[in-house]
Amino acid sequence: MRKISMERHRPRVLILMALLSVLGGGCGEKQQQAEIISLEGKIEKIERTSDTKGKITVVFFSEKQKQEMTGTAEVTKETEIMIDGAAAILKDLHDGDQLRGEVRVEKKGDKKVQSVLKIKVERPKSGASGG
After folding, report:
1. Cα(92)–Cα(71) distance, rounded to whole angstroms?
2. How many Cβ atoms sit within 10 Å of the Cβ of residue 56?
3. With helix as H, strand as E and coil as C, how does 31-96 read?
4. Burial class (CB in 10 A: 0-12, 13-18, 19+), 14
């Protein structure tokens, strides 16, 4: 019988364990700590603390709750913002913009912390633009 050396496989096992913990494959309790929610809605309010950071309030329809809801989440410099397919930052967004996005909801103690991961805005094209 052939003997398998764990020493030879240890780096692969450690990498796999690290990936699993990052992707939420740790203990069951931690898997419920963060949830990614996709939504579509309209920007109701933007509170900027800088050109790239602040809070955004969005009105959206919750499939889970089966009703229209309002949610506020943190926008950071890591938030990916696209307007008409081009990279943008928080200062480029406007109240009333229709958006699609992803929000990470994390439980920290009794609080829920909501962070915006992605925002995608498609603005209506004006018909009077010249070439």
Report:
1. 20
2. 26
3. HCCEEEEEEEEEEEEEEECCCCCEEEEEEEEECCCCEEEEEEEEECCCCEEEECCEEECHHHCCCC
4. exposed
- In tens, the pLDDT along 52-101 reads 999 999 999 888 889 999 999 999 999 999 999 999 999 999 999 999 99
Q: Give the pLDDT confidence score for residue 127 in this predicted structure.
A: 62
- Which long-range contacts does 57-64 make (Cβ < 8 Å, 24+ apart)? 58/99, 58/101
Amino acid code (one letter) for 127:
G
Reading the block at residue 88, the tokens are 């943008």
With vertex at residue 75, the alpha carbon angle to CA 70 and CA 79, rounded to the nearest 5 degrees, is 120
